[in-house]
UniProtKB/TrEMBL annotation:
GO biological process, one term: negative regulation of DNA-templated transcription
Keyword terms: Cytoplasm, DNA-binding, Iron, Metal-binding, Repressor, Transcription, Transcription regulation, Zinc
Protein family membership: Belongs to the Fur family.
Top-level taxonomy: Bacteria, Bacillati, Actinomycetota, Actinomycetes, Micromonosporales
Protein name, entry field: Transcriptional repressor
GO annotation, cellular component aspect: cytoplasm
Highest taxon listed in the record's lineage: Bacteria
Amino acid sequence: MHGERLLRDRGLRVTRPRLAVLAVLTECRAHLDVEEITAQVRERLESVSVQAVYDVLGALTAAGLARRIAPAGGPARYEARVGDNHHHLVCRKCGQITDVDCATGAAPCLDPIEAAGFLVDEAEVTYWGLCANCQG
């Protein structure tokens, strides 16, 4: 019921594919690409096309129920953590992505030197390096 309410509150029709994709994102708490999401949705529904998953992800992202991140050199990934200004650590070797909270208190990333008249409300910061497993 929770997923149905989220969809309705954002003005989206409640469909089985939307509920399944939202559940996968919420339960996994990971940064999944479309193939990974599709595989997990197919475990819940008899059949769903990759295009249907793309369409659902587009609707969920536009409604603020999912976030799309696109690290350079890799596929777009999706997560259910929205509504905060968190950032990401990406391992250059294995591609693992980890959430990183923004600076506590003031968020300097939201205060660009030259905002060109924009009112900034979100920043995408990606930190690159090697995860603990890949360092050895």
